[in-house]
Amino acid sequence: MAKSTAGWLHEQQRDWVRQRARSWLWRSELPTWMLIVAIYGGWFATLAFWQTLGLLPATLLLIWFTTWYMSLQHELIHGHPTRYPRVNQLLGLMPLAVWYPYGLYRDAHLAHHRTHLLTQPEDDPESYYIPEWRWRRYAPWQRKLIALRNTFPGRLLLAPALDIIQLVGGMLTSFRQLDRRAIAMWIVHGVLLALTFAWLVRCEFSILYFVLAVSYPALALTKVRSFLEHRADGDPLARSVINEASLPWRVLFLNLNYHSVHHDLPGVPWYALRNVYLRDRASYQQRNGGFLVRGYGEWLRHFLWRSVNVNAHPGFTRTNGNEQ
User: How confident is the model at residue 53, as a pLDDT?
Assistant: First the structure.
């Protein structure tokens, strides 16, 4: 198990997890290695034989493999399948999903795991909340845009576009400010993206079609997982959701629907998260303040037309960088 700042429920849980970590399955990381082979093999094979498969089946398969790849990248960031970050990075550098350089995603996500800052805008890079002072300055159309983004359909259709705009803006800022580390990441990403697009051309698969009909929907699927994944709460332990999703979603998202468990124990591999949760189900539901949902369909029913209240961060102020 990768080194991490773990939040154990009790000593018995810690002993049980550490015992499992010494098992052959955990030490070999065989499930993750098999996943890597399945994702890369499936993605490249689907493109190679898309004309035989047909455009629609190939598109659906590519959306699945591309979304799955983004879930895999998250697992690589957390120290799987090897204990060597550079090796894991090599396994996740290819821009199969087009948009995000692995290094930028890694740095932002690890910052997101600073639990005491979770959901705080300007401190948590993955927060959907907005500082109160900035929210007050927003024009009415901007607030309506945020409200639309915070519906379930808006999170799928609109949020990826807003993320891409923000990503491109960040890239331009990095080049303008001569941020050499970020520039190096973007250059590597650009070279690998050119190679990826060259493979698409070789397979006679339209690059524009891939971006619009595969990459964008795949990014939208990740927004299903992240919909109300975190909430602003005075108790940091109650800020991450437990989503008892069905099997297809659990497979696609590599059990990250048990998000409260993942934030407590970020070093636990994806194939063990469900067992860890089920072993102490009641304790976890109590620990995270009952922040529980019975599958993503529940979010869809509740927020098909209604906006979830994730806009101005409640009670957020900044004094010497600390939450008050």
Answer: 97
